[in-house]
Structures are given as C-alpha cells and as structure tokens.
Amino acid sequence: MAHDLEKAKQDFLAKLAPLTKEAEILNLKSEFVGKTGVVSEMLKSLKDMNPEERKTFGPRANELKDFINDQCNLQLSKIEVEEINKKLAEDRIDISLTDNIQVKTTKGGGFHPRTIIQQEIEDIFLSMGFDVLDGPHIEDEFHNFEALNIPADHPARDMQDTFWFHDPHTTPADTKKYLLRTHTSNIQVRGMLSRKPPFRFIAPGVVFRSERTDASHEMVFTQLEGMMVGKDISVANLIYFMKTILKEIFKKDVEVRLRPGFFPFVEPGFELDIRCLICSGAGCSVCKQIGWVELLPCGMIHPNVLKAGGIDPNEYNGFAFGLGLDRLVMMRYGIDDIRHLQSGDLRFNSQFKLF
Ligand code: FA5
C-alpha cells in the first residue's frame, strides 16, 4: 500500500506540473482528493485493513491528502496573482504616450503670445546679469510721477491720461493720491530705493491709461521697464542693449531709427522706432501710415530722478527704457490690431505655442 501512496503522489505531481488554468487544477484536485478521488478511495479502504496496517497507512494517506490540497491551493493562488498583475499591466495609463484616449479628448492649454515674448525677454536680460522686478499696479503720485521729475503742475502729466482713485483737485493736499500706474517707470523708483549701485534690472508689467483704443492703442497694455545704474555708463551702452534685445527677439536685423524724445525722467531722451513689420514700411493702421512703430523710448536717467532714488548723481549715472511689449508682440507675430491680444478669443490664442 505504501507503494501505492508513493505512486499516487508521483502521478499527481506529474499531472500538476503542466497545468496553468484554474479549472484544470480544480479537476486534478477532485481526481485525487475529491469524494471518489484516488486518495479518498485509498482512505476508504482503511476499514478493511488490520489494525497494524491501518496504523501506518492511515497517517501517510492523510499526509498525502494534505499535500495534494496544499499543492493545488498554492498553484491556484499563483495563477490568481499572475492574473491580477496582467490586468494591472494592461490597464496602466502610459502618460508618456501622446496618442492615448485621454490626450485625444482633452484640449491642450497654451501660453498667450505676450507671455511667450515676455519670458524670452526675461531670459535674455537674465543672461546679461539683469534682475527681474515687480511692483504695484495701484500706485501713489510720488512713485508714478513726482520721483520721476514730473511734479503736479508739470505739463508732461497730460502725456499719460491717468485713472485716479481720487479726484486730484478735490482730495485734501495732505492726503496721498492713488492712481492706476500709467507706466512701469514706478518700478524704477522702487528699484533704486531698494538697492545700492551698481545694479541693473528689468520690470515687466501691465499699465493703465484712460485712452481711446485703436489698432495700436489699448487702455490696459504691457510695458517692460529697464534700468542700469553704475559708473561711466554712456549712450553707447544703452544702444548696445537695445540692439541686442531686438536682434534676439526678431532673430534677424530689423530696421530701427533713433530720434530725440522728451520724457522728464531722462536727459537726453530718445524714441527708438522699428520699421513696421506689418506693412514693411508701406503704411498701415498699426503704424498710422508712417511706416514706423514707436516701440522703445529710452534715455540717460535725469539727475533729479537718481536723487529721488537715493543715488548721488555726481558719482553714478545710468540709462532707462520702457519697451511697449504689446507692440513688440504685434511686430513679431504680424498681428494687425492690438485689441486681439485682450479679446480672449480662443481662435486667436490657440495659434500660439501649446503645451
Ligand atoms: C513711457 O511710458 C515711459 N515711461 C517710457 C520710458 C521709460 C522712457 C524709461 C524713458 C525711460 P510712453 O508713454 O511712450 O513712455 O510708452 C512707452 C511705450 O509703450 C510706447 O513706445 C508704446 O510702445 C507703448 N504704448 C504707449 N501707449 C500705449 C497704448 N495706449 N497702447 C499700447 N501700447 C502703448
């Protein structure tokens, strides 16, 4: 009988080895330890054995029955684990794939063209050692005008139609008057007051003017201020930086002209115009038929402005500029109306770099 048990065991193991399916293993289990299985029948024959035989055969037959049960259960749980792993592998979402269903059904976002250009300009200036500063949109009269050499009765205030928070004529004289900043030059003042020369920084930001809108004018638009203060800085340094930035942005030589410009906070002051890239200089609504677009006013910082910023004009000098960012974006992408930039029209926005 011992021989029969060993033979049954070997038989079972040989049959189990190739099985990979749950149903096959359950059948095999039943074939050996089911009600009428090989081992179960052997156990039934115990009753016909003499006590001696029963004593040795009984435990060994039960041992084989447990062994078969354990082996089958082990194989069944292996199959279960394999199936779970297979399912997990099949259901895995590969986020590196661009053509899976999720990407197809989700519209990608993108950067506004102004953001693209602003980031490019920031990178260029950062590589030339400039810091990038920010400043408040709601500003007081001192930082927006007075410290920039534009006192209350100065006619230059009329150049920038201002949104006031209080009527400047009825607010008591000792009260600070607030406004929506008309240019990013307020950050010149804040930048000077918060650092010691030599320094160089740029300050991009939105500005506000109570103006009639047309193809090249908005009431809310963006400027990018720049300032460099140190010893013996000259107009040649100013022109070098302006030319470098335009060359980097347009990736080609663009035609520019420098003409005298008046801004109370610079002396001498210049207007840097760019040949209109919408009409190639022939004349259009963006350049007001003159073929040139006013883009980059600049100049050598006025000594009064340096003084207001806590800097000794006998020791230091410098240049400043205020780039019209929206107009630069228009020239770069050939946009023929500044109002597209703020329209929020997705047909317009989605033409630019998407994620
Ligand atoms: C200024 O605002 C001066 N603060 C710039 C400056 C800084 C000069 C430092 C010297 C030194 P201006 O008002 O010209 O200057 O505006 C600067 C640029 O902003 C213009 O050349 C133009 O490109 C742009 N700009 C002006 N008004 C508008 C407007 N309504 N809509 C769109 N862009 C405008």
Automatic annotation (TrEMBL):
GO annotation terms (biological process): phenylalanyl-tRNA aminoacylation
Family note: Belongs to the class-II aminoacyl-tRNA synthetase family. Phe-tRNA synthetase alpha subunit type 1 subfamily.
Catalysis performed (reactions): tRNA(Phe) + L-phenylalanine + ATP = L-phenylalanyl-tRNA(Phe) + AMP + diphosphate + H(+)
Organism field: Bacteriovorax stolpii (Bdellovibrio stolpii)
Gene Ontology cellular-component annotations: cytoplasm
Name of this protein: Phenylalanine--tRNA ligase alpha subunit
Protein's gene: pheS
Amino-acid positions noted as binding Mg(2+) in the UniProt annotation, renumbered to this chain: 267
GO molecular function, a single term: magnesium ion binding
PROSITE patterns associated with the record: AA_TRNA_LIGASE_II
